[in-house]
Amino acid sequence: MIKFEHVDFTYEANPEEKSLSDITLEITNGECVLLTGESGCGKSTLLRFLNGLIPEFYNGERKGKIVVFETEISDTEIYDFVGKIGTVFQNPRSQFFNVDTTSELAFGCENLAMPENEILSRIDKTVSDFNIDTLMNRDIFELSGGEKQKIACASIDALRPDIILLDEPSANLDYDSAENLRQMIKLWKSEGKTILIAEHRINYVWELADHIIVMNRGSVVRNLGKSEIGRFTEDMCRKYGLRTLKRTSPVELAIEHKRNSYNNEFIELTNFSYSYKSKKNVLDIQKLRIPQNKITAIVGANGAGKTTFLECLCGIRKNKGIMYLDGKKYNSKQRLKEIFMVMQDTNHQLFTESVLDEVLISMPEENEDRAKEILKEVDLLEFADRHPMSLSGGQKQRAALACAIASERPILLLDEPTSGLDFKHMLEVSKILNRLKEQGRTVITVTHDSEFIENCCDEIIMLNEVKE
Amino acid sequence: MYAGFGAVGKRNNKLDIGRIKSNPIGLKMSDWVTINLLPVLYCKYTLVKSNLVYTNERKKIMSKKEKKGLNGRDLINIGIYSAIYFVIVMAFAMTGLIPIMLILLSSMIAIVGGIPFMLFLTKVKKSGMILIMSLIMGILMFVTGMTWMPIPFAAVTGILSELAYRGGGYKSIKSAVLTCGIFPLWAVGNYLPLFLQREQYFADRTSYGQEYIDSVMNFTSNWMFFVLVIMTFVCGIIGGLIGKVLLKKHFKKAGIA
Amino acid sequence: MADKKSFLDPRTKLLLVFIEAVLVLATAGGERLVIFKDIFAVLPFLLLVTAKRYKTCFIGGAIFAAVIFFEYSVFPNSTGTVAAFLVVIVTVVTRFLPAYLMGSYVIQTTKVSEFKAAMEKLHIPDEITIPMCVMFRFFPTVKEENSSIRAAMKMRGIGLGGRKLSHIVEYRLVPMISCSAKIGEELSAAALTRGLGKSRKRTNICKIGFGIFDYLVFALAVVTLIYWILGVVR
Question: Which of B63, B76, B250, B252 to mutate to test the interface with A (most CBs of A within 10 A)?
Fold first, then answer.
């Protein structure tokens, strides 16, 4: 039984905004609860109370009472709940403490000083339950994002906690990995664990939830029990700013999509192939045509080399592929100047002191007025003097897009631009891309977000995994 | 091995142990060793011992809420910033393969290292963190084959850095910059083998002629050591000042500091 | 789970690094121990081969051979500053290289979990072990961040060459530190929720122990030591 009674919270780092206002909730044992709402609604904050990160990790002013396992939280520390509450976080890359997978599974148990035999038998059971035998005894750095997240879940499972918290666990996962995650949550549910999931991407867990809590700006706006969940419509999702309930795989969309015969020009790509040391022929494209002045989505299963394709196209990765645009031939080095790429992790691209500087640096010729115009277009003018790293995820995405606009390059590549974004921000990105299209640019985006594809993409291309 | 060093005794002390007739190591080095190393080891020993005593006492007295020792988060922070520091420092250290650069190496490390180190200092609010980082650098030097000498040397420089930062109450920017000057001295520990045993380096190379030996010996005379220490300290201060600017310009605004 | 025993126990490897350092680098023992010195100078190359680190072995061997070549053929014929230069290079490399190679061997063949187990068996306090394990785990992350940032800079047309030093610092160093620090924060949170605290008893499933090769190394070390002590005493 988890109880929140009139809980208020304000982060020390953000004193002007109340993150939680008068939250009163009750969660029964064994329930699978979905917490959702727009960005900043407070769903992650609720979870942080339960696993103890507030107040040990995040300082702030707190009011109200929270009860878990019949104890009040203010008397406890993170360590007290380690074997009883497990948390899976958003970023697969920053959750693991060890370098090899087997040690990672043992990590939590080792910290609780369980005897070695006990730990080994728990690992065996978890490996068979989750079917991850092929992932054992491997270097975690070599795993894909979805596999890393699997290991994270497995290492929590080894602790056999009664309550499992998941904080936007699918934000960086593609469609198939999200399905895998769904299977794991289903397994936990069948074991009678209490599960709380904070998510934007609600479609893959909607049917598993017994209890859905919709939040907005720190308050609970809807508290749905099992019977009401069935009656929640797509329109109500729009009303509360939630993402779609429909579960469509991007590959399905690609197959159904009818190829339009555009009268426009094409960008033609020939001979794009790339091999890694560990994996041969990750990319092997003989010929590909992408319509100009349109927004094209690139979809495909994980490992099909989508990010590699973008990097080769952009010129970051040296390769022998040739691009033909407007009758001219471009090799890898020449393409660097014609293509702007917004990467999956925008933190890698933003490095100046202020958002305005970031835009100015991207311009071929610095022009402050034009820069401010661009910021206005992406709705970031009020943040012009803020440090880019202090922005939220959605704002960083828009800042990177502002740089793309400022660069005046004809082709724009995007790598998963909408992962982790709520409905409103996804629409904003679509709007900006459409405007770029009108300005005569070509947009190519790798994405697994079906809602985003349906919203603004004109063309879908599927990259197949190259079979050896 | 220490039996050999210590048993020789101080030269001025007429303590002749008698049995020892010939000593291939050379008295001069053992002078250095006994004068410098034993006190250092003693310091380290007392520090470790007092830390143990402190830990035991703390376990008895402190209740859960009053944890003043280093907790899990502090230890993780030390690890993270050691990794960042070491990667940056090693990137520049690779140029040390060129002999001229070898002399400048510790100074270069001091300047570039100052930047991540200043950021690390904003996370240091308790005693022990700087010392542990210094010891880790020493251990890393040992594991990469630079002998064990950097370890006690780093212990001493680590303690001095702790005192410097603690003197400013873990808050003052001035003491932070000062600490940035003292901390990189761990790198000077790497030069110790060169200075302490230079006779051995050249003893079996007399065929090269005395003048060659003399010119190189000039480079590695004792006073050069102190020049290196001072150079490193000054460069550390410079690194700290650069770090201070960057803290203000970037890290504080980004919310990382 | 099958326990994969490495060739040598991590503690033995540390002992070897120590011996390398003292014997070859610091040349303790002088003339008497020349044979042992040579044995230990060659040892890293052998070990690297057993670990299949042929590249490191080869490069190390090439440098060593080149330097010895300089020592015996070029040097006697050169004069002045060139000779002084060469003396320094020759002595530095012949002294430092075996120890450095031994160090490389240790680093490349020891898994972090083995290292942690060895530290615990040696009763080294948590305050040192935990930060070191975090550090080793974090090295690849810092390098990944660095290469991502480099790629981003390349795309935006901001290179290193010919630019002011302050640019290099601000455009490469600062983002790398910022990104790494942010990941570090997330890592802390995750590790804390999985029970990482100090001064609590912990178990370790990684098994390390001494095997026959370890005893061989010990035997060699003891023989060297005895030989040395005999030389000192007599």
Answer: B250
SS3 (DSSP) at A9: strand
Neighbouring-strand partners of residue A330: A323
Q: Give the whole-angstrom CA distance, residue A217 versus residue B48.
A: 51
A25/chain B closest Cα distance in angstroms = 28
Instruction: Output the domain CATH number for residue A454.
Output: 3.40.50.300
Radius of gyration of chain C (CA): 23
> Is the same domain home to A291 and A406?
yes
A440 DSSP 8-state letter: T
- Give Dmax over CA atoms of chain A in angstroms: 72
SS (H, E, C) C82-127: HHHHHHHHHHHHHHHHHHHHHHHHHHHHCCHHHHHHHHHHCCCCHH
The shortest C-alpha distance from A391 to chain B (Å) reads 8
Report CB contact under 8 Å: C187, A97.
yes
Instruction: Give the model's confidence band at A261: pLDDT under 50 very low, under 70 low, under 90 confident, else very high.
Output: low
- Comparing A222-231, A358-367, B37-46, the range with the smallest average pLDDT is B37-46
Kindly state the tokens that stand for A194: 């209490």
A459-462 and A295-299 as β-strands: parallel, antiparallel, unpaired?
parallel
With CB atoms and an 8 Å threshold, state whether B204 touches C26: no
Q: Using a CB–CB cutoff of 8 Å, tell me whether B64 touches chain A.
A: yes
In a shared domain, residues A48 and A191 = yes
SS3 assignment, position C1: coil
Is residue A467 a part of any domain in this protein? no
State how far the Cα of A47 lies from the Cα of A118, in Å rounded to an integer: 29
Do A198 and A265 lie in one domain? The reply is no
Q: Which residue has the higher pLDDT, B195 or C30?
A: B195
DSSP conformation class of C170: I
Asked whether residue C104 carries a pLDDT value surpassing 90, the answer given is no
**Global ipTM:** 0.90
Distance CA A260, CA C174 (A): 46
Consecutive 10-residue runs of chain B (257 residues): their mean pLDDT? Answer: 34 36 46 61 63 54 52 92 93 66 82 93 92 94 82 93 92 92 91 67 52 59 83 94 93 86
Range of the domain at A24: 2-240
- Chain CA centroid to CA A213, Å: 21
For residue C106, which residues of chain B lie inside 8 Å, CB to CB? 143
Number of helices (H), then strands (E), in chain C: 9, 0
Least Cα distance to B208 among A377, C72, A257 occurs for: C72
- Is the preceding omega at residue A55 within 30 degrees of 0, hence cis? yes
Based on the domain organization, do A254 and A235 belong to the same domain?
Answer: no
pLDDT digits (tens, 9 = 90+) for A191-205: 999 999 999 999 999
Nearest to A98 among C113, C182, C202 (CB): C113
Q: For residues C100 and B145, is the Cβ–Cβ distance under 8 A?
A: yes
Question: Distance from CA of residue A64 to its chain's centroid?
Answer: 32
